[in-house]
């Protein structure tokens, strides 16, 4: 195919605005997939993605389309992940294509992820075609949304295409616009040394690692010996092909083309998104610019509820890591929780997805400790020496504070879009989380606020709080901004005078008392009463800053309540037995699994 008849594009949208449905319609209308094989949201392959309606791994499909000009075009759609945790992957895969369809729900308008994703596309020099979706709904306001796109994003929108991905209305116009309004790839030379970008990779149980690539220059052929320029790894190309969306073999891929190869690559870890692929002999000299590996920013401990399942957990984690290079893990032992793993994630959603998969696909019940960010702890140095930096992944490992010079924490720049009437609550929430307001503007009836916030204040329950104070009407997105010093201390929790490591956390000194009190009150409600009195304390160093006491259980209470009814009593006992499994013993005290998460939520 000549370059002039290739179009590579992605679809950018806020979650639920109809990206996957539109992709399905494009595939369907071009008969890329036989009708009987069509299932909703074809591109969201993994079950969990389908259930949650999110696309995590970038997927791709090659579509053949005969345009109104009578020519045959090859359209390559890359479906990028739609969530902030995967921002780096999104920004890389955007560099593999020349244009984007900007899908905006005509009943909702521009949201935070619309902005974040479209700015990534603009950064990648994309031509953008705005598409207003869901115009079949009575609440659709295409004219207002067009205006909003122009005001807020600053791109031309009068010729936005009005569609319903659900009914199929307007889809032919989208296909024509891809051909007429998006540029073809710039002229690469098929005979030049190979230069291809690694766009994505994943583990396939039959083929090993599958690598998605975009060829910039030169030609890749089956049987080639290739190397990855950043990692230095070398492989033979066993299988080369394209997705339609099922795999279809091809003999070669030339400039402008998107496809995949396999080559007995065992681990996804060996394939870094953004790496440059060339041939081992007569390869290109310079790699593609801007490569940086994505690093985990949120860490937490995962422990099996049933400690005999530790080996099963190890197995599950190793298998998941094969398919997810951005997820890290190492063994951890906790006095309270026994053997488990300290795991690193790109963000909170990433954490949730991995945790859910372990529980569902491997049937292992987990205790998840409080998520923590990575702190930079600078140790005091002898005269003249440089301060030693320790990357603290786990508050339990905090060194002796008297030896610490200062601590830095990661900060983010958060963008929140919210209807006017909730603005006050959002500002208060951000303020409470130690935010610094950077900007406040209006986009029609919505306000857009930009805040500098500590990531640590966001990883836990910020999304939940934001959703609840705005009744779900706010949208949120963030990017990492780097590290800054602050007055941070480790707060410990003692239950019945025993420190519970899994509940340790780093807090700002000024918030410590408040946080400690809230934590003790929560735990008092979460821990069941025992036959003895249980003190619950929060402490910094040796100093107790908050305290609650859980009173002792009177022996006759259960007997009295459930004395008469035999079936009810049996049910209660069964429930207690099930509950018991989810409890962990700390000294003499049983703490239920939920306590580790719930105790850290702030109201
Ligand atoms: P994504 O998160 O951007 O991939 O969004 P989806 O394609 O999963 O769509 C989100 C929801 O909106 C689903 O329930 C779709 O059925 C629905 N939806 C998508 N397009 C339309 C449309 O044009 N009209 C209506 N009424 N619903 C739509
Ligand atoms: Mg989707």
From TrEMBL:
One annotated GO molecular function: hydrolase activity
Domain of life: Bacteria
Enzyme Commission numbers on file: 3.6.5.n1
Binding site for GTP: 16-21, 133-136
Assigned keywords, A-Z: Cell membrane, Elongation factor, GTP-binding, Hydrolase, Membrane, Nucleotide-binding, Protein biosynthesis
Similarity annotation: Belongs to the TRAFAC class translation factor GTPase superfamily. Classic translation factor GTPase family. LepA subfamily.
Descriptive protein name: Elongation factor 4
Source species of the chain: Thalassococcus lentus
């Amino acid at each position: 195919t000549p370059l002039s008849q290739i179009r590579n594009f992605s679809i950018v949208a806020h979650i639920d605005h109809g990206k996957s449905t539109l992709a399905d319609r494009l595939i369907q209308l071009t008969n890329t997939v036989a009708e009987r094989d069509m299932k909703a949201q074809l591109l969201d392959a993994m079950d969990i993605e389908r259930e949650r309606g999110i696309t995590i791994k970038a997927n791709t499909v090659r579509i053949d389309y005969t345009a109104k000009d009578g020519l045959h075009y090859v359209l390559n759609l890359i479906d990028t992940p739609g969530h902030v945790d995967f921002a780096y992957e999104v920004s890389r895969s955007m560099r593999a294509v020349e244009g984007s369809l900007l899908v905006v729900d005509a009943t909702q308008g521009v949201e935070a992820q619309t902005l974040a994703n479209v700015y990534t596309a603009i950064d990648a020099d994309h031509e953008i075609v705005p598409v207003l979706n869901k115009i079949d709904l009575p609440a659709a306001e295409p004219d207002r949304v067009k205006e909003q796109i122009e005001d807020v994003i600053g791109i031309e929108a009068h010729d936005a295409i009005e569609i319903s991905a659900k009914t199929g209305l307007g889809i032919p116009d989208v296909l024509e616009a891809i051909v007429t309004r998006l540029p073809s790839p710039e002229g690469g030379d098929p005979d030049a040394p190979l230069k291809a970008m690694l766009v994505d990779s994943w583990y396939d149980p039959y083929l090993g690692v599958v690598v998605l690539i975009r060829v910039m220059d030169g030609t890749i052929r089956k049987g080639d010996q290739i190397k990855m320029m950043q990692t230095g790894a070398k492989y033979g190309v066993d299988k080369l092909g394209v997705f339609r969306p099922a795999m279809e073999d091809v003999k070669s891929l030339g400039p402008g083309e998107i496809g995949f190869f396999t080559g007995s690559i065992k681990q996804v870890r060996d394939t870094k998104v953004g790496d440059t692929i060339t041939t081992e002999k007569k390869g290109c000299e310079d790699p593609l610019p801007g490569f940086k590996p994505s690093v985990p920013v949120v860490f937490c401990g995962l422990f099996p509820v049933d400690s005999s399942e530790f080996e099963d957990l190890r197995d599950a984690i190793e298998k998941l890591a094969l398919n997810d290079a951005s997820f890290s893990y190492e063994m951890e032992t906790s006095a309270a929780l026994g053997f488990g793993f300290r795991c690193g994630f790109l963000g909170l959603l990433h954490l949730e997805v991995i945790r859910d998969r372990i529980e569902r696909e491997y049937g292992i019940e987990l205790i998840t400790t409080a998520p923590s960010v990575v702190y930079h702890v600078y140790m005091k140095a002898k005269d003249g020496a440089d301060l030693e930096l320790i990357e603290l992944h786990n508050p339990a490992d905090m060194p002796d504070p008297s030896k610490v010079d200062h601590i830095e924490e990661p900060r983010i720049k958060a963008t929140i879009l919210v209807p006017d009437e909730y603005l006050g609550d959002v500002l208060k929430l951000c303020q409470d989380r130690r935010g610094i307001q950077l900007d406040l503007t209006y986009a029609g009836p919505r306000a857009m606020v930009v805040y500098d916030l500590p990531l640590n204040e966001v990883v836990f329950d910020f999304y939940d709080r934001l959703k609840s104070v705005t009744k779900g009407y706010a949208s949120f997105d963030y990017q990492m901004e780097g590290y800054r010093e602050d007055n941070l201390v480790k707060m410990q929790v003692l239950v019945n005078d025993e420190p519970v490591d899994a509940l340790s956390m780093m807090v700002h000194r000024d918030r410590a008392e408040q946080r400690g009190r809230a934590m003790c009150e929560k735990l008092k409600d979460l821990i069941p009463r025992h036959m003895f009195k249980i003190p619950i304390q929060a402490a910094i160093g040796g100093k107790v800053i908050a305290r609650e006491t859980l009173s002792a259980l009177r022996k006759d209470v259960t007997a009295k309540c459930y004395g008469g009814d035999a079936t009810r009593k049996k049910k209660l006992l069964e429930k207690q037995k099930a509950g018991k499994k989810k409890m962990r013993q700390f000294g003499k005290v049983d703490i239920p699994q939920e306590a580790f998460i719930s105790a850290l939520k702030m109201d």
